[in-house]
Design a protein that fits this description.
By secondary structure, this protein is mostly helical. The protein is 90% helix and 0% strand. The chain is built from seven helices and no strands. α2 crosses α4 and α2 packs across α7. The radius of gyration is 22 Å and the shape is extended.
Length: 183
């Protein structure tokens, strides 16, 4: 086995283990996502402050961008340090997610009816795409239902997000292990 395959295999095994942990502790997984958001905001603000001077010399930054960077650092620190800010961030994140799911579902429903019109096309490839309109409609409706369910049951939805993240990491790890043997 080459070094790349060994590293890929090790990372795959670690991902599977991490995914199992995430799926087994979905609440902690969701809360960890909030910490990641807080640290991302914090690091982005720090990076902007560190590069502000060089960007200002190029005419790409002004006092407002420095102010925005300082605010980003303060917001990131607040999310990382404050339990109340973490709760507010978590709730806000959930509701934005549910809103996006409903919006994407509505767009899917609209798209389904546009696809339905393609069934009458003379071009076989386009007609084949149009024949799938029912599936697009079904998934659009399911997304709207899932988003509404999320608004009605946010805590249950947060837990399910943690499980989905864990399963996704497990699948990624399995794919890495398989690629380690097939490269």
């Amino acid at each position: 086995m080459t070094t790349n395959r060994i590293v890929l295999f090790i990372f795959g095994v670690l991902a599977v283990i991490g995914g199992i942990y995430c799926a087994a502790t979905p609440g902690l997984t969701y809360l960890s996502m909030i910490w990641i958001i807080g640290f991302a905001i914090l690091f982005h603000g720090i990076e902007d402050i560190m590069t502000w001077s060089a960007r200002k010399k190029l005419g790409l930054a002004d006092g407002w961008s420095l102010f925005g960077s300082i605010v980003a650092v303060l917001c990131g620190l607040t999310v990382v340090i404050s339990g109340q800010a973490q709760l507010l961030t978590g709730i806000t994140l959930l509701y934005f997610l549910f809103g996006w799911i409903i919006f994407a579902g509505v767009l899917g429903i609209i798209s389904a009816f546009r696809l339905k019109g393609l069934k009458k096309s003379e071009v076989p490839e386009i007609m084949a795409i149009g024949s799938k309109w029912g599936w697009v409609l079904l998934f659009g409706i399911l997304m709207v239902i899932a988003g509404l369910f999320g608004f009605a049951h946010p805590l249950l939805s947060a837990v399910s997000i943690g499980i989905i993240v864990g399963v996704n990491i497990i699948i990624t790890g399995i794919n890495m292990i398989i690629r380690a043997f097939t490269l």
